[in-house]
Design a protein that fits this description.
Number of helices: 11
Bound molecules: octanoyl-coenzyme A
Strand content: 15-25%
CATH topology of the largest domain: 2-enoyl-CoA Hydratase, Chain A, domain 1
InterPro entries: ClpP/crotonase-like_dom_sf (IPR029045), Enoyl-CoA_hyd/isom_CS (IPR018376), Enoyl-CoA_hydra/iso (IPR001753), Enoyl-CoA_hydra_C (IPR014748)
Largest sheet: 6 strands, mixed
Family: Belongs to the enoyl-CoA hydratase/isomerase family.
Organism: Candidatus Vagococcus giribetii
Distance between the termini: 28 Å
Strand order of the largest sheet: 1-2-3-5-7-10
Keywords: Lyase
Protein name: Enoyl-CoA hydratase/isomerase family protein
Oligomer: single chain
Structural class: alpha/beta
Number of domains: 2
CATH architecture of the largest domain: Alpha-Beta Complex
CATH superfamily of the largest domain: 2-enoyl-CoA Hydratase, Chain A, domain 1
Shape: globular
Order of helices and strands: EEHEEHHEEHEEHHEHEHHHH
Protein backbone atom coordinates (compact mmCIF):
# COMPACT_ATOMS: atom_id res chain seq x y z
CA UNK A 1 0.00 0.00 0.00
CA UNK A 2 1.20 3.54 -0.68
CA UNK A 3 0.84 6.23 1.96
CA UNK A 4 0.07 9.93 1.62
CA UNK A 5 0.75 11.03 5.18
CA UNK A 6 3.43 8.56 6.27
CA UNK A 7 6.77 7.36 5.00
CA UNK A 8 8.69 4.23 5.89
CA UNK A 9 12.43 4.13 5.42
CA UNK A 10 14.14 0.80 6.13
CA UNK A 11 17.89 0.86 6.66
CA UNK A 12 19.89 -2.12 7.92
CA UNK A 13 16.81 -3.72 9.49
CA UNK A 14 15.66 -0.52 11.23
CA UNK A 15 12.36 0.89 9.99
CA UNK A 16 11.68 4.60 10.48
CA UNK A 17 8.06 5.74 10.26
CA UNK A 18 7.74 9.49 9.69
CA UNK A 19 4.43 11.32 10.06
CA UNK A 20 4.41 13.56 6.97
CA UNK A 21 2.02 16.46 7.51
CA UNK A 22 4.40 19.29 8.38
CA UNK A 23 2.10 22.22 7.48
CA UNK A 24 -0.39 20.98 10.11
CA UNK A 25 2.42 20.14 12.57
CA UNK A 26 1.78 16.46 11.74
CA UNK A 27 -1.72 16.55 13.31
CA UNK A 28 -3.47 13.20 13.26
CA UNK A 29 -6.54 13.15 11.03
CA UNK A 30 -8.67 10.01 10.49
CA UNK A 31 -6.75 9.43 7.26
CA UNK A 32 -3.40 9.50 9.08
CA UNK A 33 -4.72 7.08 11.71
CA UNK A 34 -6.03 4.65 9.07
CA UNK A 35 -2.69 4.79 7.26
CA UNK A 36 -0.80 4.28 10.51
CA UNK A 37 -2.89 1.22 11.38
CA UNK A 38 -2.23 -0.43 8.02
CA UNK A 39 1.47 0.47 7.90
CA UNK A 40 1.96 -0.97 11.39
CA UNK A 41 0.12 -4.17 10.35
CA UNK A 42 2.54 -4.51 7.41
CA UNK A 43 5.55 -3.94 9.68
CA UNK A 44 4.32 -6.54 12.19
CA UNK A 45 4.82 -9.34 9.64
CA UNK A 46 7.92 -7.88 7.96
CA UNK A 47 10.81 -10.10 9.04
CA UNK A 48 13.31 -7.62 7.57
CA UNK A 49 12.46 -5.02 10.24
CA UNK A 50 14.00 -5.64 13.67
CA UNK A 51 13.40 -2.28 15.37
CA UNK A 52 10.99 0.57 14.58
CA UNK A 53 11.57 4.31 15.03
CA UNK A 54 8.63 6.75 14.96
CA UNK A 55 9.22 10.45 14.30
CA UNK A 56 7.60 13.57 12.82
CA UNK A 57 8.56 15.50 9.69
CA UNK A 58 10.05 18.99 9.96
CA UNK A 59 11.87 20.60 12.86
CA UNK A 60 8.95 21.92 14.84
CA UNK A 61 6.65 19.06 15.73
CA UNK A 62 6.60 15.36 16.44
CA UNK A 63 2.78 15.44 16.35
CA UNK A 64 0.75 18.45 17.61
CA UNK A 65 -2.24 16.26 18.45
CA UNK A 66 -5.37 14.97 16.84
CA UNK A 67 -6.62 17.18 14.01
CA UNK A 68 -8.76 19.74 15.83
CA UNK A 69 -10.28 21.12 12.63
CA UNK A 70 -11.59 17.64 11.78
CA UNK A 71 -12.68 16.90 15.36
CA UNK A 72 -14.56 20.09 16.14
CA UNK A 73 -17.88 19.20 14.46
CA UNK A 74 -18.11 15.59 15.59
CA UNK A 75 -21.15 14.32 17.49
CA UNK A 76 -21.10 11.82 20.39
CA UNK A 77 -20.98 8.76 18.15
CA UNK A 78 -18.38 10.22 15.78
CA UNK A 79 -16.24 11.36 18.73
CA UNK A 80 -16.29 7.83 20.15
CA UNK A 81 -15.50 6.33 16.72
CA UNK A 82 -12.54 8.69 16.29
CA UNK A 83 -11.20 7.71 19.70
CA UNK A 84 -11.60 4.00 18.87
CA UNK A 85 -9.87 4.55 15.49
CA UNK A 86 -6.89 6.16 17.23
CA UNK A 87 -6.82 3.60 20.02
CA UNK A 88 -6.84 0.72 17.53
CA UNK A 89 -3.95 2.17 15.52
CA UNK A 90 -1.93 2.90 18.67
CA UNK A 91 -2.72 -0.55 20.15
CA UNK A 92 -1.33 -2.17 16.98
CA UNK A 93 1.80 -0.04 17.37
CA UNK A 94 2.14 -0.88 21.07
CA UNK A 95 1.74 -4.60 20.33
CA UNK A 96 4.27 -4.77 17.50
CA UNK A 97 6.64 -7.71 18.02
CA UNK A 98 9.49 -5.32 17.20
CA UNK A 99 10.69 -2.84 19.85
CA UNK A 100 9.72 0.76 19.08
CA UNK A 101 11.52 4.04 19.76
CA UNK A 102 9.80 7.43 19.53
CA UNK A 103 12.22 10.15 18.38
CA UNK A 104 10.34 13.25 19.52
CA UNK A 105 11.60 16.16 17.47
CA UNK A 106 9.28 18.94 18.69
CA UNK A 107 5.71 19.36 19.98
CA UNK A 108 4.17 16.14 21.31
CA UNK A 109 0.78 17.36 22.42
CA UNK A 110 -2.48 15.48 22.96
CA UNK A 111 -2.55 12.62 20.46
CA UNK A 112 1.15 13.30 19.79
CA UNK A 113 2.10 12.65 23.40
CA UNK A 114 -0.15 9.57 23.25
CA UNK A 115 1.62 8.35 20.10
CA UNK A 116 4.95 8.63 21.94
CA UNK A 117 3.42 6.78 24.91
CA UNK A 118 2.43 3.89 22.62
CA UNK A 119 6.14 3.36 21.80
CA UNK A 120 8.47 1.36 24.05
CA UNK A 121 11.19 4.00 24.53
CA UNK A 122 11.14 7.78 24.09
CA UNK A 123 14.09 9.95 23.01
CA UNK A 124 13.60 13.69 22.51
CA UNK A 125 15.36 16.79 21.21
CA UNK A 126 15.90 19.89 23.35
CA UNK A 127 13.02 21.73 21.64
CA UNK A 128 10.47 18.99 22.40
CA UNK A 129 7.40 19.94 24.42
CA UNK A 130 4.84 17.61 25.96
CA UNK A 131 1.32 17.92 27.22
CA UNK A 132 -2.22 16.60 27.28
CA UNK A 133 -4.12 19.87 26.66
CA UNK A 134 -7.48 18.18 25.89
CA UNK A 135 -9.42 19.48 28.92
CA UNK A 136 -8.83 23.00 27.57
CA UNK A 137 -10.70 21.91 24.43
CA UNK A 138 -13.58 20.38 26.39
CA UNK A 139 -12.55 16.76 25.90
CA UNK A 140 -10.27 14.21 27.60
CA UNK A 141 -7.22 12.42 26.16
CA UNK A 142 -8.81 9.92 23.79
CA UNK A 143 -5.93 7.97 22.27
CA UNK A 144 -4.73 6.21 25.42
CA UNK A 145 -3.39 9.12 27.51
CA UNK A 146 -5.58 8.43 30.54
CA UNK A 147 -4.25 4.86 30.63
CA UNK A 148 -0.66 4.86 29.36
CA UNK A 149 0.50 8.15 30.96
CA UNK A 150 -0.29 7.10 34.59
CA UNK A 151 1.25 3.67 33.95
CA UNK A 152 4.48 5.38 32.85
CA UNK A 153 4.85 8.39 35.17
CA UNK A 154 2.53 7.51 38.07
CA UNK A 155 -1.05 8.52 38.81
CA UNK A 156 -0.41 11.81 40.65
CA UNK A 157 1.92 13.25 38.02
CA UNK A 158 -0.37 12.09 35.17
CA UNK A 159 -3.44 13.62 36.83
CA UNK A 160 -1.64 16.95 37.29
CA UNK A 161 -0.64 16.99 33.62
CA UNK A 162 -4.11 15.98 32.39
CA UNK A 163 -6.14 18.18 34.79
CA UNK A 164 -4.06 21.31 34.10
CA UNK A 165 -3.41 20.63 30.41
CA UNK A 166 -0.05 22.33 30.95
CA UNK A 167 2.75 22.00 28.42
CA UNK A 168 6.10 20.90 29.86
CA UNK A 169 9.60 21.17 28.46
CA UNK A 170 11.90 18.28 27.76
CA UNK A 171 13.90 18.56 31.00
CA UNK A 172 10.76 18.09 33.07
CA UNK A 173 9.59 15.30 30.77
CA UNK A 174 12.95 13.62 31.44
CA UNK A 175 12.68 14.16 35.20
CA UNK A 176 9.26 12.47 35.40
CA UNK A 177 10.35 9.52 33.27
CA UNK A 178 8.38 10.42 30.16
CA UNK A 179 11.60 10.71 28.16
CA UNK A 180 14.64 8.43 28.48
CA UNK A 181 17.30 10.69 26.88
CA UNK A 182 17.60 14.21 25.42
CA UNK A 183 19.72 15.12 22.38
CA UNK A 184 20.41 18.01 20.01
CA UNK A 185 17.78 17.90 17.28
CA UNK A 186 20.39 17.31 14.56
CA UNK A 187 21.57 14.21 16.44
CA UNK A 188 18.20 12.80 17.48
CA UNK A 189 17.64 10.32 14.65
CA UNK A 190 21.27 9.23 14.68
CA UNK A 191 20.97 8.54 18.42
CA UNK A 192 17.71 6.70 17.74
CA UNK A 193 19.55 4.54 15.19
CA UNK A 194 22.38 3.88 17.67
CA UNK A 195 19.90 2.75 20.32
CA UNK A 196 18.06 0.64 17.73
CA UNK A 197 21.35 -1.05 16.74
CA UNK A 198 22.24 -1.79 20.36
CA UNK A 199 18.88 -3.59 20.67
CA UNK A 200 19.16 -5.25 17.24
CA UNK A 201 22.42 -7.03 18.10
CA UNK A 202 20.54 -9.19 20.64
CA UNK A 203 18.35 -12.24 19.97
CA UNK A 204 15.12 -10.91 18.41
CA UNK A 205 12.81 -13.51 19.97
CA UNK A 206 14.25 -12.73 23.41
CA UNK A 207 13.85 -8.96 22.99
CA UNK A 208 10.34 -9.39 21.63
CA UNK A 209 9.50 -11.92 24.38
CA UNK A 210 10.69 -9.55 27.10
CA UNK A 211 8.56 -6.75 25.58
CA UNK A 212 5.40 -8.83 25.64
CA UNK A 213 6.03 -10.12 29.18
CA UNK A 214 6.64 -6.59 30.49
CA UNK A 215 3.56 -5.16 28.77
CA UNK A 216 1.19 -8.03 29.57
CA UNK A 217 2.55 -8.34 33.11
CA UNK A 218 1.67 -4.70 33.87
CA UNK A 219 -2.02 -5.66 33.71
CA UNK A 220 -1.61 -8.75 35.94
CA UNK A 221 -0.97 -9.54 39.58
CA UNK A 222 2.73 -9.98 40.41
CA UNK A 223 2.17 -13.71 40.82
CA UNK A 224 0.55 -14.08 37.39
CA UNK A 225 3.20 -11.87 35.84
CA UNK A 226 5.96 -14.05 37.30
CA UNK A 227 4.20 -17.16 35.95
CA UNK A 228 4.05 -15.57 32.51
CA UNK A 229 7.76 -14.73 32.77
CA UNK A 230 8.58 -18.36 33.63
CA UNK A 231 6.54 -19.62 30.66
CA UNK A 232 8.19 -17.33 28.12
CA UNK A 233 11.63 -17.87 29.71
CA UNK A 234 11.16 -21.63 29.30
CA UNK A 235 9.85 -21.35 25.73
CA UNK A 236 13.03 -19.59 24.63
CA UNK A 237 15.00 -22.78 25.38
CA UNK A 238 13.34 -24.18 22.23
CA UNK A 239 15.04 -21.52 20.07
CA UNK A 240 18.22 -21.78 18.03
CA UNK A 241 19.27 -18.35 19.30
CA UNK A 242 19.30 -19.56 22.93
CA UNK A 243 21.63 -22.41 21.91
CA UNK A 244 23.78 -20.01 19.88
CA UNK A 245 23.89 -17.31 22.58
CA UNK A 246 25.02 -19.69 25.31
CA UNK A 247 27.43 -21.64 23.11
CA UNK A 248 29.02 -18.40 21.98
CA UNK A 249 29.43 -17.33 25.61
CA UNK A 250 31.13 -20.55 26.73
CA UNK A 251 33.34 -20.56 23.63
CA UNK A 252 34.27 -16.88 24.18
CA UNK A 253 33.05 -15.70 20.79
CA UNK A 254 30.36 -13.32 19.55
CA UNK A 255 26.96 -14.93 18.82
CA UNK A 256 25.39 -14.93 15.37
CA UNK A 257 21.65 -14.79 15.85
CA UNK A 258 19.15 -15.91 13.19
CA UNK A 259 15.80 -14.90 14.73
CA UNK A 260 14.96 -18.60 15.13
N1 LIG B 1 -4.99 20.11 14.70
C1 LIG B 1 -5.17 20.79 13.56
N2 LIG B 1 -4.32 21.72 13.12
C2 LIG B 1 -3.24 21.99 13.89
C3 LIG B 1 -3.00 21.33 15.10
C4 LIG B 1 -3.94 20.34 15.51
N3 LIG B 1 -3.78 19.63 16.62
N4 LIG B 1 -1.87 21.81 15.64
C5 LIG B 1 -1.42 22.74 14.78
N5 LIG B 1 -2.23 22.86 13.72
C6 LIG B 1 -2.10 23.75 12.57
C7 LIG B 1 -2.45 25.18 12.92
O1 LIG B 1 -3.85 25.38 12.86
C8 LIG B 1 -1.72 25.94 11.85
O2 LIG B 1 -2.45 25.87 10.64
P1 LIG B 1 -2.55 27.18 9.66
O3 LIG B 1 -1.14 27.42 9.23
O4 LIG B 1 -3.44 26.71 8.57
O5 LIG B 1 -3.11 28.25 10.51
C9 LIG B 1 -0.45 25.11 11.65
O6 LIG B 1 -0.74 23.81 12.17
C10 LIG B 1 0.76 25.68 12.39
O7 LIG B 1 0.39 25.81 13.76
P2 LIG B 1 0.46 27.21 14.56
O8 LIG B 1 0.40 28.36 13.60
O9 LIG B 1 -0.56 27.16 15.63
O10 LIG B 1 1.92 27.10 15.16
P3 LIG B 1 2.45 27.81 16.50
O11 LIG B 1 3.93 27.66 16.48
O12 LIG B 1 1.89 29.17 16.64
O13 LIG B 1 1.84 26.91 17.69
C11 LIG B 1 1.25 24.86 18.80
C12 LIG B 1 2.23 25.56 17.81
C13 LIG B 1 1.45 25.42 20.22
C14 LIG B 1 1.59 23.38 18.78
C15 LIG B 1 -0.19 25.12 18.36
O14 LIG B 1 -0.31 24.77 16.97
C16 LIG B 1 -1.22 24.32 19.11
O15 LIG B 1 -1.55 24.66 20.24
N6 LIG B 1 -1.74 23.24 18.48
C17 LIG B 1 -2.77 22.42 19.08
C18 LIG B 1 -2.19 21.57 20.19
C19 LIG B 1 -3.27 20.77 20.85
O16 LIG B 1 -4.15 21.28 21.52
N7 LIG B 1 -3.21 19.45 20.66
C20 LIG B 1 -4.13 18.53 21.26
C21 LIG B 1 -5.24 18.27 20.30
S1 LIG B 1 -6.50 17.33 21.05
C22 LIG B 1 -5.97 15.77 20.94
O17 LIG B 1 -4.90 15.45 20.46
C23 LIG B 1 -6.91 14.75 21.51
C24 LIG B 1 -6.48 13.34 21.16
C25 LIG B 1 -7.57 12.38 21.49
C26 LIG B 1 -8.71 12.54 20.57
C27 LIG B 1 -9.82 11.66 20.95
C28 LIG B 1 -10.89 11.51 19.91
C29 LIG B 1 -12.21 12.07 20.24
Amino acid sequence: MSYEFLSLNVQDGIGTITIERPKMLNALSSEVLVELGSLVSEIAVNKEIDVVIVTGSGEKAFVAGADISEMKDKNVLEGKEFSIEGNQAFAKLAKLPQPTIACINGFALGGGCELALACDIRLASFNAKFGQPEVGLGIIPGFGGTQRLPRLVGTGVAKELIFTGKVIGVEEAHRIGLVNHIYEQAELLEEGMKLAKSIQKNAFLAVSGSKSVIDNGLDMSLENGLNLEAQVFGSLFATADQTEGMEAFVNKRKPTFTKN
